[in-house]
Amino acid sequence: MKVLLLKDPKDKESGPDPYVKELGLYGFEATLIPVLSFEFVSLESLFEKQLSHPERYGGLIFTSPRALEAIKICLRENSKNEAWSKSLQQQWNTKPAYVVGKATASLVEEIGLSPQGEKSGNAEKLAEYICSRVPLESLTVYQTAPHAHLQQSLSSYFSQQGVPASIVFFSPSGVKFCLPYIQKLSSDSANHVKFAAIGPTTAEAMEAAGVTVSCTAESPTPQDLAAGIQKALHPQNCILSE
Predict the structure, then answer these.
(1) What is the C-alpha to C-alpha distance for residues 230 and 217, in angstroms, rounded to an integer?
(2) Buried b vs exposed e over 188-201: b needs ≥16 C-beta within 10 Å?
(3) What are the residue boundaries of the Tetrapyrrole biosynthesis uroporphyrinogen III synthase domain, all occurrences included (predicted)?
(4) Cα–Cα distance, 82 to 190 (Å, whole number)
(5) What pTM does this model have?
(6) Which domains does the chain have, with CATH numbers?
(7) How far apart are CA 220 and CA 60, in angstroms?
(8) Strand 97-98 vs strand 115-116: parallel, antiparallel, or unpaired?
């Protein structure tokens, strides 16, 4: 059975995408289609006003892997990388660095910080935990837009592979940008597709758009998503195995 994953593939250097690999263990044929493109903004402000002044803050919150990419771009400059290595990294390490998922947590470790909260499961639970402890100041460091080849990629997939058994959304932006094309391409067959969400925020966006959510991953991991899709597509098997 075919599963369409509306997300960017993992970096090729890091090996096969973990979602494709995990779904393959259940016998699913998963395909990735990149949905979003990103433009990084306010990077000078990020370093000069935020990262350079750890004394002003009680910690850091990274909302996605893209936020870490923004920091890595900042640290490409020799002077900023030197400042980070000499003192800033150590100062920030005395404060919590919050994340939701394991993918973001691993990137936090790459810049020398120790992540917390990756097991919280979703942004709402993490936010409740954080807001009970510290006031917040936010800075937007990237903007999202539809991937340049999104429409073409979706059209090619549906014409070559047909309508998949399940389609997985990984963000509210993905719902916004992909759903009109998917509804047009799948036509009446959309009623037979099991739509899945990586988390509750994405599920809410799907429901608001009129999509029936067949499953939501208990936590944003390949294992929980694959188990949820297996249960949605083969409920009888899950009942028997229990």
Answers:
(1) 11
(2) eebeebbbbbbbbe
(3) 18-133, 134-226
(4) 53
(5) 0.74
(6) 2-35+147-233 (3.40.50.10090), 39-143 (3.40.50.10090)
(7) 20
(8) parallel
